[in-house]
Amino acid sequence: MESRISGHTQLYALIGSPVGHSGSPAMYNYSFDKLGIDAAYLAFDVPVEKTEKAIEALRTLHAGGFNVTMPCKTAVAQLVDKLSPAAELVGACNTVVFEEDGTMTGHMTDGVGFVRNLKEHGVDIKGQKIVLLGTGGAATAIAVQAALDGVAEIAIFNRKDEFYANGEKTVEKIRKAVPSIQKVYIEDLDNTELLGQVIAESDILINATRAGMSPMQDVIPVPAEFLRPELAVADVVYNPKETLLIKKAKEAGCRAAVGGSGMLLWQGVAAFELFTGQEMPVEEVREKFFE
To answer: Which residue in the list 50, 53, 73, 129 is annotated as catalytic?
Structure first.
């Protein structure tokens, strides 16, 4: 990197807290170097209450753009000048581009990354019926992008906890913004009988809960007997690489069993293209940082 840093090097960044564990700087800087782009990517630990100051600092430094992680995604969406359709529906953004006129456009690439990861595994969501477990940030981004990309039905399941209302809001937003969708609704995840019935009539099952993630690595979000060969199963959890759900999906002979690391890769690819107009060297990045 030292050999390519100059007085003209463009700054890109990640803001949020904590960011010390992030693999983004390595992935982006490797890609800049590989493509000969005069840019550098740094991570800055920014608590949510200092989000506005951080953005103003990046604007002052003429940064090209920045990524956003928790807990700043919602705050950033309220501070940018424009939002992409997905970011507006989600009410949060994970990628911001400084335009030539100095304005900021906020994007949400998590859903794009998820859909692209499915496609890489031979699963097209258009016209499909999906069951989505969870109502957090990742789940919301996936629901919104799936709706925008032409999915037929979305059945969201979540326990009736403090996040259930967030799922209800997502349902209403999608109904208003994407009237072409045939059906979108939310039900109680604890209603196992209904969950089984809906999965039996659906094409894709998506886990966007913490089930499968440490310390819940021995937890499967739905009974294994709900899995069948005609079903595609995907998880947003990427550590461990193969969750119990993905393992059971493979054992059940599901037509696809897709882990979460690909979503992480492809959302980064989408952000990189928004920043630079070029596609990240995907295969090299996958081999170096995701294998």
So the answer is: 73
pLDDT over 90 for what percent of the chain?
Answer: 89
CA pair distance 203, 8, nearest whole angstrom: 50
- pLDDT at res. 176: 95
- Which ranges constitute the DSSP H helices of 42-153? 51-60, 73-77, 85-90, 110-120, 137-148
Q: What one-letter code names the amino acid at 46?
A: V
Token output for 237: 């959890």
Contact 189, 159 (CB under 8 A): yes
For the stretch 68-99, pLDDT in tens is: 999 999 999 999 999 999 999 999 999 999 99
Tokens of 33: 């170097």
CA distance 165 to 186: 10
**Residue 73 is among the residues annotated as catalytic for this protein:** yes
Q: How far apart are CA 207 and CA 216, in angstroms?
A: 13
**Assigned token pair, 107:** 């994007």
Q: Judge whether 12 and 66 are in contact, CB under 8 Å.
A: yes
- Strand pairing partners for 105? 82, 97
pTM of the complete model = 0.92
